[in-house]
Design a protein that fits this description.
single chain; 530 residues; mainly alpha
Length: 530
């Protein structure tokens, strides 16, 4: 073997060292979960509990590696956060959301998708839940390894259905509830996209399209921050602190308004001082969204932790309840032990730290170009959508919401760019082809004008052009070419097609895998009992 080949092998080996380190740390976490479950799971049914805890920890690792990137990816892609800062914020708030506010959605995964009463006995129920957990974890890991952006919620819901149908037939599925969940998978990305696009449009109309951007930002940004403060405090009162202090929704909203008023006053004072040194430019306004974007990313991580921890610990909580209970029947409701929630919370954080950076970069830059204003709109829209879903107890996919918000922003930008180009095209058509100086002068005035001034300029131009002849026009093929160029530049359709394809295949694939695992477990356990 030549020396150059040996050097190439050494370089390849060095590149593989980080992967081996990450794999080793992941295995170490799973082993730690096993030891933790042995001491905390109790003696009754300990084998099932330990096995379920290990698989649940493995599932949580994959959720952290895949889904959490949707929360902080826009902030990293817009350079509002460094990768290290994003990892720290996401880990802290994901774990906090899972432990403080994750209980209700766990109930949906545990009891809402299938009817436990139709399962003949406790042991079969445990096999169903364990099969679902293992199948979802394996499917998610395989999809992540090949770079497929699958939904962890799809994975676990499909797996629970597959395991339940394998155990007791089609009637076990709660089809009305499943219909609600399936509808949320369609509605949530649409709502996320509409909300993000609406926020971006409001910011553009109220700030970046204004002639005096500094004064506009000083007026509007405090209200945006106040709205964030209201939503965060209201949600904390209703979901995060209700175990300590239970309040009604009107009281929670009232406390949120108090917090919003405080945020409004503080931010307004800060911006008033900062405005004296600001440039009257889009970049300067864009920088104002750095701290709101960090705040939104933290809130989104908190909401995601409260919602998606169900994917890891829902079946695990059901197994712990069944295996440790002395009763012979299958309980409909059961509390989720804190140690079970901790496995999900820590697993998500560890998975994010080990495998999240790769996906964070993809989400932040490969779908559409993001700046801080666009990233703020994406994060805030996804935050509000996840909060509403968690309040309703629906296990929606954060992937759907975040991707919908990203594409909503991208398509709005594309629409506005195309609309502006059509206006420029119209302006050119109303100027004689040889009068280039007049055309340039008009375009310069049009570019810096406000929305109302643009409309007046166009009206004046059309009125004037009625008295002119032999006007220059762009051809229809030229307009089509220009529109296609902007679509390719602003929104990547290939990413949309990949994600849609992954969404379609995940549920049936995880369901089939769970059914197969259930049959294997039943045959193995049945033979051992015999």
């Amino acid at each position: 073997m030549e020396f150059k080949h040996i050097n190439e092998l050494e370089k390849a080996s060095k590149r593989g060292h980080p992967e081996l380190v990450r794999l080793g740390l992941g295995v170490l976490f799973v082993v730690g979960v096993m030891i933790y479950a042995i001491f905390r799971g109790g003696s009754s049914g300990s084998l099932y509990i330990v096995a379920a805890a290990v698989v649940g920890g493995y599932m949580a690792l994959n959720i952290g590696a895949n889904d959490v990137a949707n929360n902080v990816g826009p902030a990293v892609g817009s350079r509002a956060l460094t990768l290290t800062g994003a990892l720290v914020i996401a880990a802290v708030f994901e774990a906090g959301g899972a432990i403080i506010a994750g209980g209700e959605v766990v109930g949906t995964i545990r009891n809402g998708i299938i009817n436990p009463a139709l399962i003949p006995n406790k042991e079969t129920f445990i096999w169903v839940m364990l099969s679902a957990l293992l199948a979802a974890a394996v499917w998610l890991n395989a999809a992540t390894a090949i770079g497929a952006p699958v939904s962890t919620t799809h994975s676990i819901v499909g797996a629970v259905i597959g395991g339940g149908v394998a155990a007791s037939g089609m009637d076990i599925v709660n089809w009305p509830k499943m219909g609600q969940i399936a509808a949320s998978w369609v509605v949530s990305p649409v709502l996320g996209g509409i909300m993000a696009a609406a926020l971006l449009f409001v910011i553009k109309r109220s700030i970046t399209y204004k002639a005096d951007k500094v004064d506009a930002a000083r007026t509007v940004v405090p209200w945006l921050m106040a709205f964030m403060g209201w939503s965060f405090v209201t949600y904390l009162m209703l979901k995060g602190l209700n175990r300590i202090w239970s309040v009604s929704t009107p009281v929670a909203m009232g406390l949120g308004l108090v917090a919003a008023a405080v945020v409004l006053v503080v931010v307004r004072q800060v911006l008033t001082r900062h405005a004296q040194t600001m440039d009257n430019s889009k970049d300067a306004v864009n920088d104002l969204f750095t701290y709101p974007l960090i705040f939104a990313a933290a809130l989104l991580s908190f909401a995601h932790g409260s919602n998606d921890v169900a994917n890891a610990v829902g079946p695990l909580a059901a197994i712990v309840d069944m295996a440790s209970s002395a009763a012979t029947g299958i309980a409909k409701d059961a509390p989720v032990p804190l140690w079970v929630m901790m496995i999900g919370a820590l697993g998500i954080s560890v998975g994010l730290a080990l495998y999240g950076p790769r996906v964070i970069r993809t989400v932040g830059s490969e779908i559409t170009e993001l700046d801080k204003t666009r990233a703020y709109c994406i994060a805030m829209a996804a935050t509000l959508t996840v909060i509403v879903a968690s309040e309703l107890g629906l296990p929606v996919s954060s992937t759907h919401i975040a991707v919908g918000a990203v594409f909503g922003v991208g398509f709005l930008r594309e629409y506005l760019k195309n609309r502006y180009d059509r206006l420029v095209e119209e302006i050119k058509s109303h100027h004689p082809e040889e009068d280039q100086a007049a055309l340039n002068e008009f375009l310069n005035r049009f570019k810096v004008a406000s929305v109302a001034e643009k409309g007046q300029l166009l009206d004046d131009l059309k009125s004037k052009s009625k008295r002119q002849e032999d006007l220059a026009h762009f051809s229809k093929p030229e307009r089509k070419t220009l529109k296609k160029v902007y679509r390719r530049e602003l929104v990547k359709r290939s990413q949309l097609l990949r994600i849609a394809a992954a969404w379609v295949i995940t549920v049936p694939a995880s369901a089939a895998m769970a059914a197969l695992v259930f049959f294997i477990l039943r045959n193995m356990m049945g033979s051992a009992a015999a």
